[in-house]
Amino acid sequence: MKSSHLSTSSLNWNSNIQDLYSRGPTKSAQSLIDAGYSTLWQLLWIIPLRTQATPVIKNFQNAYEECLFSGVGKVLSTKSLPSFKGRGKNQAPLLNITAIVKDIFSDNIIELKWFNAYPSQSQSIQKLDYLKFSGKVQIYNSSKQIVNPDFESILSTELPTKEEEENPLPNLKIQYPTINGVNSSNIKKVIDKIPAQLWREIEDIIPEDIREQRKLLPLDQSFLLIHAKTEHLEKWSDGLYEEAKKRLIYEEFLDEQLKIHLRKKKNINISAIKLEIKDVDRKKYSSIYPYELTPDQDSTLKEICIDLNSGKRMMRLVQGDVGCGKTTVAITSSFLIINSGLQVALMCPTEALAKQHFEEIQSYCHDLKFTSKLLCGSTSSKDKKEILKGLENGEVDFIIGTHALIQNEVKFKNLALAIIDEQHKFGVDQRLKLLNKGEGTHCLIMSATPIPRSLSMTQYGDLNISTIKTIPSGRKGSKTRIVMPENFGKFLNFINTRASMGEQIYIVVPAITESPKQDMLNLEEVLEKFKKFFPNLNVQGLHGQLKNEDKNQVLKEFKNNEVNILIATSVIEVGINILNATVMAIMNPERFGLSSLHQLRGRVGRGDKPGFCFLVIDKSVSQESIHRVQVIEKYSDGFQIAEEDLKIRGAGDTFGKEQSGSNNGKKIANIILDFSTLQAVRDDLSEILKQNTSHFKRKLESLAKDAKVFSTI
Fold first, then answer.
1. Tens-place pLDDT, residues 378-396
2. Is residue 144 a contact partner of residue 137, using CB atoms and an 8 Å limit?
3. Which ranges carry the Helicase ATP-binding domain (predicted)?
4. What does the pLDDT read at residue 662?
5. pLDDT value of position 95
């Protein structure tokens, strides 16, 4: 491999890691590059797990109980005994090692102990004559000892002649996280290759007055403190280290907010179809329903109309709790578009949800003389051909479908509005594919998973957000109770009572079939049990692996009240709307996320009959799991639940696979713990943009050239 090694003077923070090496990157450096740390600037953001000041070397008489102590001693004896733990990796025997060490400054003794050590460690300790060590001191049977100390060999010629004096720049032990198989010491070796002069060439984009107001350290000093570069510092302390972390948290949030600012700015500048939507038309299409729009629905619709009239592309997220009426707003917006002679597409994550939307929309379209069609994977070739022709020549006004809508063969005459339902179940690329099927197409995104405020400021910060909180009148809602094993009989009696009243029941399980690796109830097992519990009722199963025709048949029978109890996986989490189903029982609720539990609960209590949700715990589970489930029992507000879910699970799992990771890809900032800093950054952003310093301009220009910054539009 040809080297691209640059001279030290020509390196900058945008240089590639391989430029540090004249003969090509080391194995560790290449592994970091493969993990996404390709530039020197990205190396800076490998934040240590901890940095600890190692105490100076002292006489053993200064080894007080519970203190962190460093010393140098002569190894008098070592002893290795088999560990109770048995064997480690590759069946290697584990040992408990004891070394008796005598102080080089006195006759004092300390015992050093290592538990569950491998034979190789025992052999290396037995070979030691002198060693330097550090660790926390304990008193056991009146003897001083240190368990699992850090240590290194030291030659007799290297022995200190006196105790070390305290220094404003202590010896620091730094521990980086293991990345792509590269351990802490090897990461440090790569970072140590960064030339000394670069550490003082870190540009600070925050104006000095804001930095002083927020009591923030300069950025270069913060990175020096974080990476323990004491050779460039006048002093180091735990307090300064915490101040450096505070500054980097601010910096990371600022970087994110700048990207959001650029995305929003680009989006505003994208020309789109301009519609002249009049109040009279908005009121006309708002009054076609057998109910009145709630104040929140009406205000959201007005916000959408302002967007559509602006001549700029609408990128609006409509969020709201289960059953708040987001779909009504989306349908009304669609009719305003179609009234202007343009087309609308509604993309759903599942065929069941697409069909449910289609049935509702079709009834309204029939009365309004609009043409609506359904396009899914199961659509026949003949029907598909006719639909594609109708979309291309403009005869089809409103298309409802699944991923089938983004196939290359789907072409529109004049697509003006793309609606994405349950947006977190789609990738960014899929959303863009649908948007790109029209010229200047507007985008309306719906989410029944309420977005916590902190996330709305970060990963959804480039979208305009409308929130619907008021629930349409006439809905009874649901009550939630946890069912422990001792109350299972009462739970079955309750189901029997509701079924005898003609009401229907959902039973949700976390798995389809039995898995030897996972201790949880499965659909096949629960289906057989409930058939035995209720031999006089029609009990059926539903899961995602069924053929579409079989799935649709079961849903049809349930909708027609031919099935009394439906045993299902979370395939029913979204979009199933059967008003006669009043009981939702979720088996092993600890296996579901809080947002999923809340979504499932939303399948009942949607009409004029009250709903009941039971969280059935069938075995002993941890207190932590019970605490999580109690959140659903305690709260009915989806926004409150989303906040609790975020606290418990982190930002990662709240909105699906795209956002995986416990801290949503953050290096040091935490949107939950550091929310006040995030707010401060947002408050400061307009002033930072206004001052527009030279460093800031360069930063903004650099971000504007990065295609990844705009990949989430």
1. 899 999 999 999 999 999 9
2. yes
3. 307-468
4. 40
5. 92
What's the 3-state SS for 339-399?
Answer: HCCCEEEEECCCHHHHHHHHHHHHHHHHHHCCCEEEECCCCCHHHHHHHHHHHHHCCCCEE
CB 199 within 8 A of CB 51: no
pLDDT tens string 469-501: 877 766 667 899 999 999 999 999 999 999 999
Supply the pLDDT for residue 572. Answer: 73
Q: Spell out the residues 6+ positions from residue 496 whose beta carbon is closer than 8 angstroms to its own.
A: 534
Q: In the CATH scheme, what is the homologous superfamily, with its name and number, of domain 57-164?
A: Nucleic acid-binding proteins (2.40.50.140)
Q: Name the CA dihedral angle for 52, 56, 62, 66, rounded to a multiple of 10 degrees.
A: 10
Cα dist from 56 to 70, 71, 169, 174, whole Å:
6, 8, 11, 16
Q: Do residues 569 and 509 touch, judged by C-beta distance below 8 A?
A: yes
Quickly count: other Cβ atoms within 10 Å of residue 218's Cβ.
Answer: 15
Establish whether domains 279-468 and 478-635 are of one fold.
yes
CATH superfamily of domain region 478-635: P-loop containing nucleotide triphosphate hydrolases (3.40.50.300)
Q: What is the pLDDT of residue 504?
A: 94
Q: What is the pLDDT of residue 345?
A: 97
**Do 169 and 233 meet the contact criterion of CB atoms below 8 Å apart?**
yes
Residue 423 near residue 431 (C-beta atoms within 8 A): yes
Query: How confident is the model at residue 713, as a pLDDT?
Result: 47
DSSP class of residue 582 equals E
Closest to 450 in 3D by CA, of 251, 622, 594: 594
Spatial contact of 661 and 241, defined as CB atoms under 8 Å apart:
no
Identify the segments of the chain with pLDDT beneath 50. Answer: 1-3, 516-517, 652-663, 713
Amino acid letter for position 202: I
- 604 token code pair: 């009942």
User: Quick check: pTM over 0.90?
Assistant: no
CA 276 to chain centre: 39
Place of tokens 């799992």: 653
Residue 27's H or E segment, with its range, is helix 27-34
Provide the residue type at 395 as one letter. Answer: E
Query: What's the pLDDT at 656?
Result: 37
Please write down the long-range contacts of 301-305, taking CB distance under 8 Å and 24 or more positions apart. 301/329, 301/332, 301/333, 303/464, 303/466, 304/329, 304/333, 304/444, 304/466, 305/277, 305/333, 305/336
Nearest to residue 348, comparing CAs of 308, 429, 406, 391? 406
Domain boundaries, the chain: 1-52+176-201, 57-164, 279-468, 478-635
CATH number of the domain at 279-468, please? 3.40.50.300
Q: For residue 22, which of 44, 43, 41, 2 has the smallest C-alpha distance?
A: 2
Structure tokens at 324: 């708040």
| C-alpha closest to that of 174 among 196, 153, 190 | 190
- For residue 8, what pLDDT is reported? 63
What's CA 358's distance to the chain center, in Å?
32
HSE (CB half, 13 Å, CA atoms) of 305? Answer: 21
